Structures
1.
Amino acid sequence: MPGGLDAFSMDGLATRATSRRLPDGLAPCSSGDIPHAVQSQIDRFEVALNNLTQGVCFFDGSRRLILANRRYADIYQLSQEAILPGMTLEEIVDLRFVAGTCPDMTRSEYLAWRATIQVSDEPTDTIVELKSGQIISIHHRPMPDGGWVATHEDITERRLAEQQLAHMARHDPLTGLSNRAAFRESTHREAARRESGNSVAVLCLDLDHFKHVNDTFGHATGDALLCAVAARLRGAIRASDMAVRLGGDEFAIVQIGVDQPSQAADLAARLIDILSRPFDLGVHQVIVGTSVGIAYSQAYRADTDALLTSADMALYRAKAEGRGTYRFFEPAMNEKAQARHALERGLRSALANDELELFFQPILNARTQTLNKFEALLRWRHPERGLVQPAEFIPLSEDLGLIVPFGEWVLHEACRAAAKWPDTISVAVNLSPVQFNEPNLVHVVGQALRASGLSPDRLELEITETVLLKNTQTILHTLRRLRDLGVRISLDDFGTGYSSISYLRTFPFDTIKIDRSFIHGIGSETSSLAIVNAIVTLGEALGMSVTAEGVETDEQLRTLRAERCTDVQGYLFSAPVPSADVAALIRKLSPAMVAA
Ligand code: C2E
Ligand code: MG
Ligand code: MG
C-alpha cells in the first residue's frame, strides 16, 4: 500500500487536488485546474482509499496531516469532518483522548512515544492497546521529507479469536482446567526458570466408580460430576500449583516448590478427603472418591513425561491396594510396568506368530452325565513363558482392542473344531463386551458358521452382564440378530455383577451359567446354596437351562443334581484340554455317542 501511494506522488495530489471533487478526508491546500486524466486517477484513488479495511494517514515533515481515509476516523471513533488536512498530530491526538481511543498513558507520554517512532528511519510495526479495549496494529513508514505514512488496523477480533484458540489449545473444554499440553509446557517453563534443588510433586488421580456413575445416571450427570470435581480441585490448591484434566476421569496436580515429600502427602490426603464427600448434582447425589499416585522429584528436571508416568504407576498401585488412598512412586513399580509393556508387545504379535491356542472344557448334562458341549477357552503360548492363562492377558487385550481380532479367531477356530465332533455336541464361545462395540459382530459370527459348515444351533455364545450395562437398546438389537442366525445365547458368571435379575428380563437367554464362586461355597455357606436354589428356580420359571461352573467334588455334584441344575462343568469331569485331546475326551465321556 505505501509503495502504491509513492508511485501516485502524494505531493502532486495534495497540491493539485483543489476545485474539483476531492477524496473524503482530503481538503484542498491550493487551487488550480486538474486535467481529466488526473481527476480519474483521483477518483479511483478515492474509491480505493476509502474501501480499505485499514486506516491510512499521511503526515508531512512538519507533522501536519496531508490526508486520512474514512477508516482511520472510524477506528478512532472520530467524526470524519473533524479530521482536516493541515491539522497537527497533537490536535488529532487531543481528539482521540476525548474519544477515549488512546492508549492507557498521558498525552505527553503518548506524544513522546510517537516522537521516538517518528525519528526512526526504519519502518516500525507496533501493536497498541487502547483504553476502549481495541487492539490496533500500526505500521509506520517514514518518508524522505521527514513525514510518514501510517496504516492502522483494528485487530481486536482477530486477537480475541487467537486468544480463544490459544486458550482452547491449553484447556479442557468441559472443566476449564489446564490440559495435558499446558501441563507439559508449564512444567518445562518452570524447570527452566528454577535453579536446581527446587522440587516438584506431580499427583495423579482418578475417580473411583466414575464409570458406574456414567453408566447409571447418564453422560450429562457424568459431565456435571467432572465439573464439580474440577471446582473442588481448584479450591484445594495454591495459586502457584496447577490442576490439569488429563482426560476422562483422570486429573493431575502439579505442586511447585515442595520442600518435603510430606507436603505432597498432605495435599493427597486432603484431595482424597474433599473428593470423597457427596456431590449434589441437581436430582442426583453422587459419591465417588479418589486414589492418588505421587511422583516427587527433589532436583527438578524438565522430564515431565517421566514424572507423569511415575505418578501414574503409583496411582495404579494405590488403586490396587484398596482405593481411597495415596502411594508414592517407587522404582519397583517401574519394573512391573516394564513387564506389562513386554506383555503388551508380545500380545500385539501373538496372532501373527500363531501363538494363540484353544483349549476345550466339557459341559455335561447333570442328570444323565452325557456330554453336551465344550466351552472353548483361549490360551496364549508365549515363546518364553509357556502357556499364559486368560486372566493374565484377556483384560490387557480388551484394553488394547486386540480382543476383537482374537475373538474373531476364536470363533473361526471353535466352529471349525466343533464341525468335526459328533452332531450332538455343541461348542460355547466367550464374547468380550468390547466385541459388542464392533458393528460387524453379527457378520463375523455368520462368517465363522458358513466357513466351518457348523449348524448354528450347535454354537452357543457366552456373554457377561457387563455387556448389558451399556447402551442396552443397541446391545439387545445385536443379541436378537445373533439369535436370528440360529445360535444360542448364555449369560456367563451369573451372580457376580450388579443387578443380575433384571437382566434376565431384558433378554430371553437360553442358558444361565452360575458363577463358580457359588458352587465353591455350596458345602460351607448356606447362602451359596440358597442362591443356587434361587437361580435354578428362576431358570425353570423363565424356561432357561442352568449350568453350574467349577464343579470340583462329588458332593457338589450331588447337591446340584438335587437342586435340579441342568448342566455341570468343572475339574470333576475334566480341566480344559488342548484341541488334540478332545477326541480322546469325547471317547472317555461319551463312549456310546462315539459308537453311534
Ligand atoms: P469363564 O468363561 O467363566 O470360563 C470358565 C473358567 O473357569 C475357565 O478359566 C476354566 O478353566 C475355569 N474352570 C473350569 N472348571 C473349573 C473348576 O472346577 N475349578 C476352577 N477353579 N476353575 C474352573 P480360564 O480358562 O482361565 O478362563 C477364564 C476366563 O477368561 C473365562 O471365564 C472367560 O471369561 C475368559 N475367556 C477365556 N477364553 C476366552 C475367549 O476366547 N474370549 C473371551 N472374551 N474371554 C475368554
Ligand atoms: Mg465362559
Ligand atoms: Mg464363567
Note: The chain has three domains: 5-158, 171-329, 350-595.
2.
Amino acid sequence: MNQAAQYAESHFPEFLEKLKTLVRIPSVSFAGFSEAEVRRSAVAVSELLRTEGLENVEVLTIEGAHPYVYGDWLHAPGKPTLLLYAHHDVQPPGREELWNSAPFEPTEKDGRLFGRGSADDKAGIIVHTSAIASYLRTEGKLPVNIKVLIEGEEEIGSGHLDTFLKQYRSKMSADVIVLTDTANFDTGIPTITTSLRGIAVTEVEVRSLKQPVHSGMWGGPAPDPVMALSKMISSLVDDDGRIAIPGIYDKIRRLSKKETESMLSLGYTEADYRKQAGILPSVQLIAGDASPLEKLFRLPSLSVNAIQASSRKNASNIINESAWARISIRIVPDMDPHQTLKSLQTFLKSVAPWGVEVHFSGEQTGDWWVTDPSGPAFEKAEEALSRAFGKKCVFLGQGGSIPFVAPFAQVLGGVPALLIGVEDPYTNAHSENESVHLEDLRKSIVGAVYLYEAFAK
Ligand code: BES
Ligand code: MN
C-alpha cells in the first residue's frame, strides 16, 4: 500500500464528515426548489476542492443553468491528465414521512450513511477529493495531472451541456475521463460501467372541459379526461408489457458475443432482480423472455413517472377538466432520442379518444452511451479497483442515464471514459432512504488513489 492509500484509510472518518457537510445542503436542481441552495452547494464544493489542495478553483456559470464547479492540479509534466466528473445536484426528497431519518440530516445506521445525495452523487465528489487530499498531504504531489468538474444540473437532464461544451471545451481537454456516478453490481464488488441507457421524456395533458363539473349533474355525455388519458397510457404497452409504439424495437443493436458472455458470466437471476428491485411476491416480471440484465441495459423501457388529476385530498364527485402524466422511455444503442420522443408523442396523439385536446410539454432527451472496455485505461482501472476492494472487478452495462458522457467523450476526441461509482443495489437512489455503504465508500477512495498511481505508469 502506498502512503496515500494508508492516509485514505486512516483518515476516512474525516472524509466522511466532509460528505455529511455536503449532504446537509438540499441542492435539489428541480424547478420549484430553491436555486439558492444549489448555488450554496456549488460554493461548498468549491471550498472543499480548495481545502483538499486543488488550484484554480472556480464556480463556472452559464446563463440559466445551475452552477458547475471546476478545479485542477497540473504539476505532473509528461504525465497524463485525468478529468474527474461528479454532480452536486440531487433529486427531490420525495415523501418526507417515508424517510426513517430526515433526508438532509446525514445519519449513520447499519454501516451505511443515509441522506439525499449521500450516494448520488455527493459520494462521487468525495471519492475524488479524498484521493487527491491523500496524495497532497503525504507525498505533497499527485502522480498525474488532474482536472475536476462537478456538474449542477445532472438530475434534470444536463440541459445546458451544449452551451457548456462550447464555452469551456478547451479548459476540459484530458487524456481520460473518470466519472464517479454509477452503481456497483453488488455491495463490495467493484464495477466498471460499459454502457448507459439514454432517455426521452414528455409530459402530456388531456383536456375535455373548461372546468371541473358536478359528476351527477353533468356525468354521462361528457368524456372524462382521466379515462381518456388512461386509455392512451394503456395503449403504450401490449398484454405482456412490451412497448406497443410502432417501430420502437427496430433500431436496437444486438449484444455482441463478447457482451453476451460478459453478461452471462455474472450469473444474475430473476430472483436476484426481484429481491433487489423489491418486486412484490405475486407480481410477474414482464416484457418478454430476455434476461433481467439485458432488459435493464440493452432494451428500452417505458415508465409513467407521475400522474395527476385532482388529488386524494380533493377527491369528490366531479368530472375533472384535465388529466396529466409524465412519461419516459429509456433508450438503448442505436435508438435515436429525438425520434423516440417524436414517436411517443405521435402515438399518444393518435390513440386519444373522443376528440379530447392533447398538449405536450416538459420534453427532455439524453443519449445512450456504450464503450468497448479494452485497452490500457480499462486494464489499469480494473487492476486498481480489484486491488482496493480485494474482489475481482466486474464489467457491466447499466440502465441509468448520464447525458454528459456521450457528448463529452466525443468533444474530447473520443478519449476513454471510465465510469465507476459507489452506489449498490441497496442505495435506493431517487427513492426515499437513499444511502451509501460506508465500507464501499472507503474502498472507492482507496481505489481512486490506486487509479491515479496506475495512470502515472
Ligand atoms: N447516477 C445516476 C445515473 C446512474 C445510476 C447510472 C446508476 C448508472 C447506474 C444519475 O444521477 C441519474 O439518475 N441520471 C438521470 C439522468 C436523467 C435526468 C437524464 C437518470 O438516469 O434518471
Ligand atoms: Mn447521479
Note: Residues 198-274+294-366 form a domain with the Alpha-Beta Plaits fold (CATH 3.30.70.360).
